[in-house]
Design goal:
coiled coil, 375 residues, mainly alpha
Length: 375
């Protein structure tokens, strides 16, 4: 600031005005500065508040970013897993399509096989009914043969034989007759016990009875053959020249009836050694109970046995085939209800020899003639 002097009053006035003006400007500037300072302070405070808010938001955003990064990583992993699953699912779909085609083809084949098995089962059922009827007829014929021919005529022949012997032993004859009766009684009791041991179907029971009776017939055949051989040896040792002469005279009769004689020859005893004088008559003797058509009767049994064996083999093959293929289908229950015996006719040596010795030309009988045949 200039100090006024006396030499220049005008200048002093001007300086005073200028000073006042400057003072006013300074005051205004100070006032303005204070206002601006207050405004700036308020702005700074507001900015600081915004800064704090932004820092807080930044912290939250960073946290959210970290979470988002983790989620993104998980999504990427899930995406890769989904791609892998998609690839495996695609492969499975392709393989399933191929297997579906194969399964459809197999299903068609099995449907055809099922229909064939169903038809075969119906045929087997019909054959089973026919076999049951044949077995009933065979059982009836066998019982007639057992009751009317074999058992009573064996006992009668043994009694007649002991009566006609030169030195008849009554006690021995009666003892053998009683022994034979006891034997057949025991056989009947044993058969009845075997029938009541376990519950069987009617077809199995009939087949089992036929089998037991055929075994008994084999035993009778062995006894007949053994006693026939004993009789021939004893008669040959004590017959001498008379035996040779009578054999030559009765050769034609023996050739005609040899098979019936071998099968139905009665029980003999060692007392034939006393028949040296009548050896030829005994050799040419034909048992009175042997019918003229006995070969036809035996051929009936052989024919029925062969047919039954063929049917049983057919049923066994069909049953094995059905059980192996019907496990995947609904025919298992129907196949499981069919019970088929494995064996009907015995395969022993004696019975096979007996069948081989039968005449083939007399064995040609139809089933109708067999069912009407009466022993």
């Amino acid at each position: 600031m200039c100090i006024p002097t006396k030499e220049d009053p005008y200048q002093l006035l001007m300086d005073t005005r200028q000073v006042s003006k400057l003072r006013a400007e300074i005051i205004s500037l100070q006032t303005k500065f204070q206002k601006e300072q207050l405004e700036l302070s308020r702005k700074i405070d507001f900015i600081n508040k915004e800064k704090k808010e932004l820092v807080r938001q930044l912290t939250m955003i960073q946290k959210e970013n970290r979470v988002a990064k983790q989620q993104i990583e998980e999504l990427v992993q899930e995406k890769s897993m989904l791609f892998k699953k998609l690839e495996s699912a695609t492969k499975d779909i392709k393989s399933n399509a191929r297997s579906k085609k194969a399964a459809l083809t197999k299903l068609e084949e099995m449907s055809v096989s099922y229909e064939n098995l169903k038809q075969e089962l119906e045929q087997v059922t019909r054959d089973k009914a026919i076999l049951e009827n044949k077995l009933k007829v065979l059982q009836g014929e066998y019982e007639k043969l057992q009751e009317r021919i074999i058992l009573p005529n064996e006992l009668q022949f043994c009694e007649d034989y002991h009566v006609n012997m030169p030195e008849r032993d009554t006690n021995n004859g009666n003892t053998q007759s009683l022994e034979m009766k006891d034997t057949f009684t025991k056989i009947d009791v044993q058969q009845n016990n075997e029938r009541t041991e376990q519950p069987l179907s009617q077809a199995e029971l009939d087949m089992k009875n036929i089998q037991v009776k055929i075994k008994q017939l084999e035993k009778n055949l062995e006894n007949f053959n053994s006693q026939k051989s004993d009789y021939t040896l004893q008669a040959g040792d004590q017959g001498g020249s008379d035996l040779n002469l009578n054999i030559a005279e009765s050769k034609v009769m023996l050739d005609d009836d040899m098979e019936a004689y071998d099968y139905f020859f009665p029980y003999m005893t060692p007392r034939l050694r006393y028949c040296s004088g009548r050896a030829g008559d005994v050799v040419s003797f034909r048992p009175p109970f042997v019918p003229a058509d006995v070969n036809s009767q035996v051929s009936v049994i052989q024919t029925i046995a062969n047919k039954v064996n063929e049917k049983v083999r057919l049923i066994d093959n069909l049953k094995e085939k059905g059980e192996s293929e019907a496990d995947e289908y609904s025919s298992q229950e129907s196949l499981s209800d069919i019970r088929i015996p494995r064996k009907i006719v015995s395969s022993s040596v004696a019975f096979q020899n007996f069948l081989k010795n039968l005449q083939p030309e007399s064995a040609r009988f139809s089933y109708e003639s067999q069912s009407e045949y009466c022993f």
